[in-house]
Write a structure and sequence with these properties.
The structure holds two protein chains of two kinds. By secondary structure, chain A is α/β, with parallel strands linked by helices. Chain A has helices at residues 15-27, 40-48, 76-85, 103-111, 124-141; strands at residues 7-11, 34-37, 62-67, 93-98, 116-119. Helix content of chain A is 38%, strand content 16%. In chain A, strands 2-1-3-4-5 form a five-stranded parallel β-sheet, sandwiched between helices. Helix content of chain B is 53%, strand content 17%. By secondary structure, chain B is of the alpha/beta class. The longest helix of chain B has 89 residues, at 117-205. The chains are: A alpha/beta, B alpha/beta.
Chain lengths: 156, 396
Amino acid sequence: MNNQSAAILLVEDNEDDVFFMKDAMKQAQIKNPVFVAADGEEAIQYLSGSGKFSDRAAFPLPAVVLLDLKLPKKKGFDVLEWLRTQEALKRVVVVILTSSQEPSDLRRAYGLGANSYLVKPAKRDRLAAMVRAVRDYWIEFNIFAPEGNNVEPPRL
Amino acid sequence: MAGDAERGSQERLLTLMPTPKDNARTAAALAEGGIHCATCGDLSELCDAIRHGAGAALLTEEAVLGDKEDCLGHLLREEPPWSNFPLIVLAHPGRIGRALTPGQMANITLVERPVRMATLRSVVEAALRDRRRQYQIRDILEELTRARHSLEDANRDLEGKVRERTRELQETVSELEAFSYSISHDLRSPLRAMEGYAELLRDSYAERLDDEGRRLLERISRSAARLDLLVQDVLAYSRVANGQIELQAVTVEEVVREVLESYPQLKDKAAIRLEGPMPPVLGHVAYLTQCVSNLIGNAVKFVRPGVPAAVRIWAEEEEDNQRVKICFEDNGIGIASNHFEEIFQIFGRIHGKSYEGTGIGLAIVRKAVERMGGAVSLTSEVGKGSCFCLHLRRAP
C-alpha cells in the first residue's frame, strides 16, 4: 500500500470540527486524501460504495475512519456496529474521535470493536499532534493480518 | 356476618322421629323448654336441612340404620374443618353398634331409650352450645381470611407503588445522565470552536492586529477557556452526585501519590510533604482522586503573597477506630469561620477575581465524600492557613 495515498474518512457533522481537522492535517503535513461524511448514513453509503459514492476510484475505501459519535440520522455507534458486520469492511480501522469522555461511551465503543478512542483536544497543536500520531500509527507502522481466513494451526 | 334468619336456622334442632306424630310431640315438648325445633320427614330432608344450617339433630337409631344411601356419612365426611355437627341418637340398650358411627369424626351422643324429657333437654342444650361455638369459630376463620385477603391486596398495591416510584426515579436518573451527556457534548462543542478560531486567529493573523486587537483576542480565549472549565466542573459535580459506585478498600497513599505524579506542576508551586503510613479507607478510587486533587489544588492556589507555599498531607485513625481522617494542611490565606459553610456550596466563591477557579471544587469534594459515606471538616485561621480533613470509614 502506498502510504501517501491511503485514504482517511472523516465522519463528522460539525463544520467547525471539519475545519479544525483539515487545519490540523495541514499543520501536521498529512498528504493522504481525506473524505468527509456529514452523517452516519452518508458514512455507510461511502463505505459500502453505494449512491453517489459508487465510483471506488474517486472514493477509495479508507485505511482509517475517524468517527464522531454524535451524528445526525445514524449515530457513530450505528456506523461502527454496521461496519463490524460487513465481511469486506470489518477490519477497517475505526478511531472514535469525540468530545465525550463518558465511561459508558468508552465501554460501548470498545465493545463494538473500535480500534481506538480519542477525545478531541481544544488546542490546535494538540489536535495536529494527535492526527499525525493516528496517521503514523495506523497507516505507517501498524501491521495488519493478511487477507483470508487461513489461520495456521499452532505447532505443538 | 350471619344475619338473623341465618342465625335462627343455625340455632334450630332438627328432629326425625319414626312417625309424624312422635315428631310433633317431641318438638312440642322441647319447645316448652325454649328449644326451637324443626321436624324432618325423612333422612334426606334432615341432611338437606343440616346443609342449610342447624344447631343439632335428634333422631332415632332406626333412621340411622335405615340410611341405605349413606346420606349422613356423606354429609359428615364433607364437613368443613371448623364443623363437627352434633347428632343425638335415641337408641335401645344393647343395640348400639358400629352402624351408629357414620363418620370417623362424627359427634354423636347416644341417649338410651326410654328417655326422660329433662335428660333429653340438657343433652340437646349441650349439643346446641357446642354447635354455637363451632359457628363462632367459623366466623373467626372467615374474618381472618378476609383480613388476609385485604392484607394481600394492600401488599400488592404497595409493591405496585414501589415499582412505579422506582421507575420514576430511574427515569429522573437517566434524564440527568442525558442532561450531563448533552452538556459534555453539545455545550462544549461550540465552545471548543470559539477557542479554536481565536487560537487560529492569534497563530496566523496576530501580526495584522494591533495591541488592542490582540488583547481583545486574548480575552475571548480566556473567557472561552473559563467557560469550558466551568462546564467541565459542573459535569464532574453531576457525575459525582449521580454516579453509581461501589465502595471498596482504597489505598489512600497510592491515590495521593498518583495525583502528585499526574500533576507535576503542584510540586513546582509548593513544598508538599506526604506523611505515611496512611490507613486504608472504604471508598472509591475515582471519587477519592477527585477529592485529593481538588484539595491539593486549593492548597497550592490560595497562597499568601510572598510566603512560599507548604502543604502537609497525612492520615490517621480516628478515636473510634471506625474512621480514618485524611488531612490537607496549608499555610495559605486561611478562611474566616463565617465562610466555612459557603465555600462548600456550588459556585460558593469568596475571593472574587484575585484567585482563579470555578467555585465548584469544594462542592465536588463534599458531594464525593458524602457519596462515600463520609464527611469533610475544616479548621482555619485567616492569615495562617487551613486544614481540610476527609473523614472516611476505615477499610476492614
